[in-house]
Amino acid sequence: LLTAPLISTPLETVDALVEDVAKFVCVVESYPEPEITWTRNSIPIRLFDTRYSIQRNGQLLTILSVEDSDDGVYCCTADNGVGAAAQSCGALQVKMRPKITRPPINVEIIEGLKAVLPCTTMGNPKPSVSWVKGETVVKETARIAVLDSGNLRIHNVQREDAGQYRCVAKNSLGTAYSKPATVVVEVFARILKAPESQNITFGSVVTLQCTATGLPVPTVTWLENGKAVSVGSIAESVKDRVVDSRLQVYVTRPGLFTCLATNKHSKTFGAAKAAATISISGMQGNKRPLIKLYKGDAGYCSTYRGEVCSAILAKNALVFFNSSYADPEETQELLVHTAWTEVKMVSSFCQPAAESLLCNYIFQECNPSGAGPAPKPVCRENCLAVKDLYCFKEWLSMEENSQKGIYKPGLMLLTLPECNRLPSLHENPSSCTRIPFFGKVAHAADWTCYSGNGQFYQGTANVTASGIPCQKWSDQAPHLHRRTPQVFPELFDAENYCRNPGGENERPWCYTKDPAVTWEYCSVSPCGDALLSLGTRKPNGETLNLPPPPPFSPTYSMTVIISIISSFALVVIFGIITLVCCRHRKQWKNKKRESETPTLTTLPSELLLDRLHPNPMYQRMPLLLNPKLLSLEYPRNNIEYVRDIGEGAFGRVFQAR
């Protein structure tokens, strides 16, 4: 009796671990026997797929080694051609023990920054992630959190966060631990106890103590007036990551002693410093008594009595002395003195501006206000002029070195001013100290001609020597520049007039409106006797017709380059023409020689043998051949051509007699 297929044992959901064996049983009752096929997610399973085994006439499907990708719905379909086909489906859920695919790694972090330790896991069911520091479970706080991804995030890292961390992944099938990762917290060097300033008698022995800490443990260096002190007079001890350094000094002169603590981190340097002055009581020298005016808690106003800045600071001007120093006058003078030697080593263009900024930065103008004396910082525009123009390369080099922890001895005690934070002389002229080096002398202004290098020329010429209109000094198009009216007083209300800001060039100039020409000198005449060089008349009646000096500008340089290239091109063209003529002359001579050669007919009987040139080699033959072989040689001149026979093994063959 024919019966349609009937599945008596429907498929069920099967749970299996990775790399385990999973089986699906599909028992079918029918007559005749049905053909059973299997599918996974509606995709047929091939009989030749080695990952599967189909037995018992197709009623048993075995997955030999379960993988994570085997998750899905498996169906068996039975069909024997009688009635409708029967189908049953069941799911395979692949279970996986926890596995850590990205464990945490060692981290070196600076105190106060954020640290993130990675921990990526996989498993089914999805494992929960926790962290262990040493043998203690890490608890989440406002600073410490375990993210949904499993990563551990620590905000504002502290010293106590250092240690070994492991992440733990756990689900119902098991637990996985990562390898320990070490967190090293690096701490910038910090001075715990600074040396104290002292006033002692001549010849005394004094001990200065400096205590510093940091991670790694910092190195302490002592400086006297900016120069390293000999190692023999320093005693040092380290305990609990705190270094205690003591300097013993035999005092014969006043000095500024600095304790410099530095340590190197993975990506940067840490540095801290503290200074103390050693002064000798009763040692005034030839200095006049110090008059303290408008004394307050922060400091006092007084006239400058030093030597280093005497030629730069205004005479009898009130400057501010900081009372945080034991001897403010001596300490500030030593600060300038230690940096002065380094300033002497910069370029000649930078040096005068740097010296003026240094003196006015250390000895700031004093403002005796009602709340007490206060220093007036350097004006922003003067500071920017030194930073962005006069000492651009030197300033940039100092900033890069300070970031790398490299300090020159004379500049170690000074920090570069942040120019953009200083008050502006245009917003409130009375709130800052103007540096006289950048001041514009009103009576020195020139209007119709220029004196010297034309720094104080205030005329209205606004066209370059080649006739190109000038760009406004306040504009940044078509040419970007740093010479703005906010930095240079001589450019105030300058519009697009020719100027020489800072006196950096030989005469007045301007940026041009031509995008191809950055700047050019202007056709402004020099004042006074300099006019004679332009063709003016001398008292004795003689006239000097000297041409004006060429403007050394991009246009002039381009003209010179084009002239040189043109001259070179003419020389090359002339050489080519000469070479062609010589070749034509040589060809003409060859044709003439060929025309003079007698024409031979193709008939062998008309060959004029008497007109053939003798072979000169036969005149030298006795010298070239062995005398015994000479008798075997038959002279070619005695051979008479008869006819052409044809092609031979070694070329053409001729008959001769």
Mean pLDDT over the residues: 81
Q: What percent strand?
A: 25-35%
CATH class category label of the largest domain: Mainly Alpha
Helix-strand makeup class: alpha+beta
CATH topology (fold) name of the largest domain: Frizzled cysteine-rich domain
Helical residue percent band: 10-25%
Rg (C-alpha, Å): 49 Å
**At the fourth CATH level, what is the homologous superfamily of the largest domain?**
Frizzled cysteine-rich domain
Shape assignment = flat
The CATH architecture of the largest domain can be given as Orthogonal Bundle
Distance between the termini: 119 Å
GO molecular function, one term: axon guidance receptor activity
Domain FZ: 296-435
Membrane topology: Single-pass type I membrane protein
Organism: Promerops cafer (Cape sugarbird)
Please outline what is shown here.
Residues 5-93, 98-184, 189-279 form the Ig-like domain. With 657 residues, the protein is α+β, with helices and mostly antiparallel strands. Helices cover 16% and strands 32% of the residues.
What are the defining features of this structure?
Kringle-like, six-stranded mixed beta sheet, transmembrane helix, nine-stranded mixed beta sheet, Kringle_sf, Immunoglobulin-like, axon guidance receptor activity, Frizzled_dom, alpha+beta, single chain, 657 residues
Describe this structure in words.
This protein has 657 residues and is an alpha+beta fold. The protein folds into 6 domains: 3-96, Immunoglobulins (Immunoglobulin-like, Sandwich); 103-179, Immunoglobulins (Immunoglobulin-like, Sandwich); 186-280, Immunoglobulins (Immunoglobulin-like, Sandwich); 299-437, Orthogonal Bundle (Frizzled cysteine-rich domain); 441-559, Plasminogen Kringle 4; 606-656, no CATH class. The protein contains 7 helices and 36 strands. Strands 11, 14, 15, 18, 19, 20, 22, 25 and 26 form a 9-stranded mixed β-sheet that branches. Strands 2, 5, 6, 9, 10 and 13 form a 6-stranded mixed β-sheet that branches. It is flat. The chain crosses the membrane at residues 556-582. It is a single-pass type I membrane protein. Residues 296-435 form the FZ domain. Residues 448-527 form the Kringle domain.
